[in-house]
Amino acid sequence: MRRKTDFPENSATPEGYGQMHTSCAHAGFPSPADDYLDGALDLNKLLVNNAPATFFLRVKGDSMTGAGIHSNDILVVDRSVSASHNSIVVAVLNGALTVKRLWQRNGRVALMPDNPQYKPVEVTHNEEFEVWGVATSVIHSLRKQK
Amino acid sequence: MSKAVYALVDCNNFYCSCERVFRPDLKGKPIVVLSNNDGCIISRSNEAKVLGVKMAAPYFKQKSFLLRNNVTVFSSNYALYGDLSNRVMNTLRTFCPDMEVYSIDEAFLRLDGFSTYNLTEYARHIRQTVYQWTGIPVSIGIAPTKTLAKIASHFCKTISDSSGVFSISDIWEKPEQVDRLLETVPVTDIWGIGRKSAEKLNRYGITTARQLRDRENKWLQKMLTVTGLYTGLELRGISSIALDDAPASRRSIRSSRSFGKPVTEKSHAQEATVAYTVRAAEKLRRDGLLATTISVFIKTSKHRPGDLHAEYCSYTLDKPTDYTPLLVHHASEMLRKMFREGHQYQKVGVLLSGLESPHNQQGSLLEVTSPQAQKQNEFEAKLMHVTDAINKKFGRGTVQLAAEGLGQPWKMKQENLSPKYTTDWSKLQEVE
C-alpha cells in the first residue's frame, strides 16, 4: 500500500522539486557590474607569498605585544622562509607551539618575548626545539571580538 | 633516447602525519586514524605499528588496547587531509611539471629531464622541501619504470640508512643487486597484482617479483592478460605504463558515508541521500562537469547477518546535467523504491557517472531548444552558481534543499575529530 507520507514534508517531490531554503543569507542575482571586477585587489596576493607553505594560526596571550602581535590576532606563517637571527618565528619547544623572536648568537639560541613582563627562554641541548615556520604578517581586527 | 626515470613520492603514514602538523606534541608518540564513522584503523604512526596495532582492525575491538597503550586516536578529518595533500602536490609541482597525482598521498614524477643532476640528491632535496613547506614526511622511490618506482619506495621504509630515498636506477647496471632486491618482494606487493592474480601465480610456484619478471611474455599474457604482461615488462625496466597526467577529468563522482547509527526510518535515509547528492553535484560543478547517470546504493551492515539488504539502482538522464534539484529528484525516487521497512541500514551512497564537459557535449538530434527552455537553462545555471557561491562564502549548508533535513540524525560518528585547522577560520590552531 502506498502511503502519502512516502515523501517527508518539504521534500523533493516530483511536482515541486527545486524548493530552496535559506537559513540566514539573502541571495540576489549578481549585479551586471560583476563582469568588470577582474582587477579587484586580492589580500592573498599581499599576505601569501608561497601558498603551499603558508598557514594561519590564532595568537593567544600577550607575550609579543611589543612586536604588534596581540591576543586573538591571526598570524600568517610561511614555513618555506628560513629563520634567522631576529625573525619572528613559530617554534616548537618541548612539544608546544610558541611565537617568539628568534635570537641566535655564537651558537646559542633563545626565544625572546616582546613584552617586559615575560622572560627570554634560552634553548639548551636538552630541549626538543624546532622552528615550525616564520611569521610574515599579522592580521589584527579592530572590532570587538564576539 | 635516454632511459626513462620515474619517481614515486609517497607520504609516510599520511593521515597520521597530517594530524601531527598542528600537534607537535604528538611527535614520537603512537597515533592512529579511524575510517569514516570510526569503523576501523586506516592509518598508523610508526610507533603504533611497533606496538603491534594492525591495519584495518575494527576500532571497537582495539579500543581498550589503544587506551592502555596511550595511543591517540583520531576520526578521519578529510578537510585537513585534502588541504595538506594539495599542498604536498603543489610543492612537488614546483620541482617537476611532469607529474601524475596518483592518490591523496602518492604522486609519480618523471625525472628524465633532470638527469644532469644526481637524481638521488635531487630527490633528497625534494623530500626535504616537502617536509619544510608542509610538515609532511615523504619517501621517494626512483626507478626506470613506475612499477619499479613503487617497489623502490617500499624499500625507503624498510632500509634504515636510505634517508627516505631509494633508487633502483642507481643499481640498474648491477643486475645481481637488482635480482637480489626483487627476490625479497612478494608478488602481492607488486603494483597491479591483485590478490586473485597473486593466488594464481602462487599456484604456479611464483611468489617473488624476480620469478614473475623472468617468465616469458606469452605466459604472462596468457595468465594475467595484457596488464600482467606490462607488469612483467616494467619489472625488466621497460617502461610500459606511461605517466597519466591528462585524465584530470574523472570517470565518476561518489559521495557516500556510513551512518553514525543504523538508520531504520525512510525519511532519514531519504535526507541522507539528498545530502549526498547535493554534495556530489557541488563537486560536479566545481570540476565544470555534467553527469549523465546517477546511481544510488543502500546497504545494511555486513556484521548483522540476519538483516541483509543491499541494492543498487541507476538512472540515465536524456541530457547530462549539473542541476542539483533534478539529480536530487531522481536520487530520491530511486531510494524510495529501494528502501525496505524493518531493515537497519548502515550506508547509502550516490554515484554520478557518464561525466562530460559541457564543451564537448554531444547534441541530441531530437533536441529543440525553445526560447523558454533556453531561459529555463539559464535560470538553473544561475541558481546553482549563486547557491555554490553563497555556500562557499558562508559555509556549507547555508542554502540547502529542504529535503536535506535539518537535524540530520543519520550523520556519521566522529568522536575524535581534530579541528579543521586549514579550512575553517574559527578552527585555527592556537599559538602562545
Instruction: Determine the fraction of residues in helical runs of chain B and give it as a percent range.
Output: 25-40%
Strand content of chain B: 15-25%
Stretches with pLDDT under 50, minimum 5 residues of chain B: none
CATH superfamily of the largest domain in chain B: Reverse transcriptase/Diguanylate cyclase domain
Task: Report the mean per-residue pLDDT of chain B as an integer.
Answer: 86
Shape of chain A: elongated
Topology as H/E string of chain B? EHEEHHEHEEHEHEHHHHEHEEHEHEE
CATH class of the largest domain in chain B: Alpha Beta
The percent of residues in helical segments of chain A reads under 10%
Write down the CATH topology of the domain at 40-139 in chain A: Umud Fragment, subunit A
Distance between the termini of chain A: 54 Å
Query: Order of strands in the sheet with the most strands of chain A?
Result: 2-3-8-4-5-6-7
Quick gist of this model?
Chain A is mainly β.
Features:
heterodimer, A: 146 residues, mainly beta, Umud Fragment, subunit A, 7-stranded antiparallel sheet, 1 helix, disordered N terminus, B: 432 residues, alpha+beta, Alpha-Beta Plaits, DNA polymerase, domain 1, Dna Ligase, domain 1, 5-stranded mixed sheet, 4-stranded antiparallel sheet, 40% helix
